[in-house]
């Protein structure tokens, strides 16, 4: 039977914290004490200088670390420093804008492409590491549909607090293509096809990637090592539908 003090602290947790769905990862179990001398057993998940996140009775809670006594704060901080980094919980929303305008002839079109990247740290606590984001924009040849190119590669850096959002307006770029797409006189050109968004940590490891193109997604699922290779493709690099460098004809 649990002592009455534990129930009182449990009530405090329910009143001051939001509960989250439990995860499979298990952290160390600690006996800690609050500033009023009440003890409770917690399963530590993570901690910062301001807060501690822990699991109890199948639920996750976040409390100010100052609610615990000095010895407990020191124990929590020491144990937290040995924990593996929590997996990132990033939600990405990429909005693509496309505007067509006539070029020098009735069948040639200039396509202006704009992009807004919105990243949200969906974790209940903690800041992301410093992330380098790269977004690669692909175009499809309108004469040879199996040939693609890198229209633009753009980079940004961010670090996002828990529950916060990073918003980035990428640089607009223009591509030109044959809108008629018929007959021997078709000169081709590249129409915007899709993007690949990649986030890397300070060690260059890929921690997140996203695309709305089903064919790009399938290709990368079949050959994950391609992602890093694509990051090194220069602008105007011609590639196949398998996202590998095209052989010059």
Architecture overview:
The strands form 3 sheets. A 5-stranded antiparallel sheet has the order 12-11-7-8-13. The chain has a 4-stranded antiparallel sheet with strand order 1-2-3-4. It is elongated. 16% of the residues lie in helices and 43% in strands. A hairpin with a 2-residue loop joins strand 3 and strand 4. It is built from 4 helices and 13 strands. The protein has 249 residues and is an alpha+beta fold. The chain has 2 domains: 77 residues, no CATH class; 151 residues, Immunoglobulin-like (Sandwich), CATH 2.60.40.
In short:
This protein has helices at residues 4-16, 70-80, 214-222, 226-231, and strands spanning 29-33, 39-47, 51-56, 59-64, 90-102, 108-121, 131-141, 147-158, 165-169, 173-178, 190-200, 206-210, 238-240. Residues 1-25 have low confidence and may be disordered. It has 249 residues and is of the alpha+beta class.
How many domains make up the 3D coordinates?
Answer: 2
- The CATH topology label of the largest domain is Immunoglobulin-like
- Approximately what portion of the residues adopt beta-strand conformation? 35-45%
CATH class of the largest domain: Mainly Beta
Number of helices: 4
Mind summarizing the main beta sheet?
5 strands, antiparallel
Arithmetic mean of pLDDT? 85
Number of strands: 13
Any guess at the CATH architecture of the largest domain? Answer: Sandwich
Radius of gyration: 25 Å
Low-confidence stretches: 1-25
Strand/helix succession: HEEEEHEEEEEEEEHHE
Fraction of residues in helices?
10-25%
Shape: elongated
Strand order of the largest sheet: 12-11-7-8-13
Structural class: alpha+beta
Distance between the termini: 79 Å
């Amino acid at each position: 039977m649990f002592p009455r003090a534990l129930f009182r602290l449990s009530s405090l947790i329910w009143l001051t914290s939001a509960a989250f769905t439990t995860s499979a990862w298990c952290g160390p179990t600690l006996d800690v004490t609050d500033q009023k001398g009440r003890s409770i057993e917690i399963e530590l998940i993570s901690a910062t200088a301001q807060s501690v996140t822990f699991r109890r009775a199948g639920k996750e809670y976040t409390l100010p670390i100052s609610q615990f006594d000095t010895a407990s704060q020191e124990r929590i901080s020491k144990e937290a420093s040995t924990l593996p980094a929590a997996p990132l919980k990033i939600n990405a929303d990429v909005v693509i804008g496309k505007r067509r305008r006539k070029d020098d002839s009735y069948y040639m079109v200039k396509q202006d492409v704009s992009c807004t990247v919105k990243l949200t740290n969906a974790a209940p606590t903690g800041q992301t590491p410093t992330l380098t984001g790269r977004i690669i924009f692909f175009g499809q040849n309108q004469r040879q549909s199996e040939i693609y190119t890198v229209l633009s590669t753009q980079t940004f850096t961010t670090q996002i607090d828990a529950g916060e959002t990073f918003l980035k307006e990428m640089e607009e770029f223009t591509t030109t293509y044959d809108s008629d797409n018929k007959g021997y006189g078709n000169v081709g050109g590249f129409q915007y096809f899709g993007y690949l968004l990649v986030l890397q940590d300070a060690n260059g490891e890929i921690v997140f990637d996203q695309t709305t193109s089903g064919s790009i997604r399938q290709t990368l699922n079949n050959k994950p090592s391609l992602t890093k290779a694509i990051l090194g493709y220069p602008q105007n690099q011609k590639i196949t539908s398998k996202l590998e460098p095209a052989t010059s004809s």
